[in-house]
Design goal:
Number of strands: 6
Number of helices: 5
Structural class: alpha/beta
Largest sheet: 6 strands, mixed
Radius of gyration: 27 Å
Amino acid sequence: MRWFLRRRVPLIDRLLLVESGPRTDVQQLVPLLRESVCGNAPIDLFTCLPDAPSGLGDDTRTWRSYEARNNAERWRMLLGLRRQRHAAAAILCGDSPLLATWKVVLAALLPGKILLIDKVEGLVWLDRRHWRKALKLGVSSSGLRNPEFIRKLAHAAFLPIGLPVLLGFAGKVHLRRLIRATRFTGRPNTSP
């Protein structure tokens, strides 16, 4: 994310492609990346699938998310990817929830420039010049416009306000009942 404040795109000597979603999308994307972004530079792959898409080349290094079985291995893999010092990382943003957490963490952790790829928006560099497009892309691909998500977000936003109010009301009611039950009326108890 260090390239977020810079408008220029670094010289790409090696690109990391974060694949998620249908394989056909990635196979159509590789020629586009070679033509418009990285030229003949090697493309490395981070994927959740067992095989690599065609067209990447023989010098492609591949990381598979399922090879990291616990948190320690996941962090080891993420830090290993960070040490590779890719000049840029292309992240496929689609409707698929595959690798959603990985994509967010990789975008935050990798030192190179981030390229977001979507069918509708196209190729969008994640920098201050394109922040509106990137935000629109993030909202549309994350499901933030889903009514169910908005309802859950409203519930989560109301909880810090509503819970103390409800607890205060319940405490007030129970305190009144306790005071009424222990109040001395001044009359002697005549019950047998």
